[in-house]
């Protein structure tokens, strides 16, 4: 019976190992829903490819990218769109954009095409491009805003003349393997699908024309694909506690001069200017100030005052990146009292309702045009501040158990690292007597004084 038992034991061991291996593979494999964001469940960039006319050997198409993301835009140096041709197509000419490489066009004896590569990469033209090379929604250096911040600049378009392609709806082939860099990795694009032909309205609105054929491509964003380490962190403080909860250590990486030489620099370092003007600036590689968290962006949430019917929060956004100005930045935060925002200072604000309008606990903030919409690089001017005044709800409002601090914070669409809830500033009355007993009477006294003063303000 021993051999039988041994075989059974081996089978059970093998089965157990197989289950463990499957579990390891399941949890370590990239999730198919990695790009899903509960605060922006329908966010994507949709590429619409509209054939507007046929040519002797191909067609002319208008390609438009629509940013349907609520709080994630494409910053400078802008987007790069790529694909692979299904056959041996070439690009005869382009308006509003250009291919980064021409490729091998030696087989064309007369005027060569604009691009002969099998997998072209397209970039937007710069502002100031001559008018005969422009179309609507082009020439913004690849920058695409969000509909919430700037709906008039939430799309980018170009026109392309394709040769050596089909000349009818049945013979033309859709491009494959679309890629979108904005400006780095992060977006994953699906395959092109035939959609309803796009309709175009005349300027007077009295005539409607439509594309001969339309394709749609959807691209979704994943923060994990964009960057392996986070890009921002959150620190906390309050009037009722003298403790400042800093960003978690190594939130966006750690200082290591051996494996990451020159990854950060001190603000008083004599090598600061040479590091800023170094070769890394050309590649867009960040150069951050040496801190314990090593994040380019830190957002500080300070519970400032407590009134009878209201309470006030101060938010400070600090740029620790010496190589980047954040233009048209935005911040998204989640807090249960955002449905009672009464007054906002120096920031624009819009409520977001990711749960179908049933809960209003998510808000988007961004700077005012020509005032603080540009977040300067690290230095004396590298910060933006605002204060929020919120009305209290007697049934839900409390300072206990970290309720006064945000649940989640995003900067430019990336989720920021939050401190551990165990480290949040605690109320003096809720703290154990073993925690700094000599400071307890003083904190209670100042909390009572602040409440009394706020009552009569």
TrEMBL record:
Keywords: Glycoprotein, Signal. It comes from the Eukaryota. Residues 1-35 form the signal peptide. InterPro entries: COB_C (IPR056900), COBRA_pln (IPR006918). GO terms for cellular component: plasma membrane. The keyword Glycoprotein applies. Residues 231-425 form the COBRA C-terminal domain. One of its GO terms (biological process) is cellulose microfibril organization. Pfam families: COB_C (PF25079), COBRA (PF04833). Belongs to the COBRA family. This is COBRA-like protein. It comes from Triticum aestivum (Wheat).
């Amino acid at each position: 019976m021993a051999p039988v038992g041994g075989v059974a034991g081996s089978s059970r061991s093998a089965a157990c190992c197989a289950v463990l291996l499957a579990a390891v593979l399941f949890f370590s494999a990239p999730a198919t829903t990695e790009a899903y964001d509960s605060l922006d469940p329908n966010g994507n960039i949709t590429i619409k490819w509209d054939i507007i006319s046929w040519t002797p050997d191909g067609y002319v198409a208008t390609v438009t990218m629509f940013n349907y993301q609520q709080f994630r835009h494409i910053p400078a140096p802008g987007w790069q769109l790529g694909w692979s041709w299904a056959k041996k197509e070439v690009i005869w000419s382009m308006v509003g954009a250009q291919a980064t490489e021409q490729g091998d066009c030696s087989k064309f004896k007369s005027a060569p095409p604009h691009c002969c590569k099998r997998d072209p990469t397209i970039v937007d033209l710069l502002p100031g491009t001559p008018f005969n090379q422009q179309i609507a929604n082009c020439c913004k250096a690849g920058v695409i805003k969000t509909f919430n911040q700037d709906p008039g600049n939430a799309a980018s378009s170009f026109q392309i003349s394709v040769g050596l392609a089909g000349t009818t709806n049945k013979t033309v082939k859709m491009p494959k393997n679309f890629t979108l860099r904005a400006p780095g990795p992060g977006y994953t694009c699906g395959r092109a699908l035939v959609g309803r032909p796009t309709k175009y309205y005349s300027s007077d609105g009295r005539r409607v024309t439509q594309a001969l054929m339309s394709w749609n491509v959807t691209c979704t964003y994943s923060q994990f694909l964009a960057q392996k380490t986070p890009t921002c962190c959150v620190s906390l403080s309050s009037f009722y506690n003298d403790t400042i909860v800093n960003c978690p250590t190594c939130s966006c990486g750690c200082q290591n001069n051996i494996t990451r030489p020159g990854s950060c620099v001190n603000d008083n370092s004599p090598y600061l200017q040479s590091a800023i003007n170094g070769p890394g600036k050309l590649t867009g590689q960040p150069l951050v100030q040496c801190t314990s968290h090593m994040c380019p962006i830190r957002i500080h949430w300070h519970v400032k005052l407590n009134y009878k019917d209201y309470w006030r929060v101060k938010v400070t956004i600090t740029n620790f990146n010496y190589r980047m100005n954040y233009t048209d930045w935005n911040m998204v935060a989640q807090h249960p009292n955002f449905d009672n925002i009464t007054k906002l200072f120096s920031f624009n604000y819009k409520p977001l309702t990711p749960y179908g309008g049933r809960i209003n606990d998510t808000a988007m903030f961004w700077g005012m045009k020509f005032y603080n919409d540009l977040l300067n690089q690290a230095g004396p001017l590298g910060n933006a501040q605002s204060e929020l005044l919120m009305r209290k709800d007697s049934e839900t409002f409390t300072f206990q158990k970290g309720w006064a601090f945000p649940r989640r914070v995003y900067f430019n669409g990336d989720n920021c690292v939050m401190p551990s809830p165990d480290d949040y500033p605690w109320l003096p009355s809720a703290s154990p007597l073993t925690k700094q007993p000599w400071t307890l009477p003083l904190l209670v006294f100042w909390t009572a004084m602040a409440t009394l003063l706020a009552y009569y303000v």
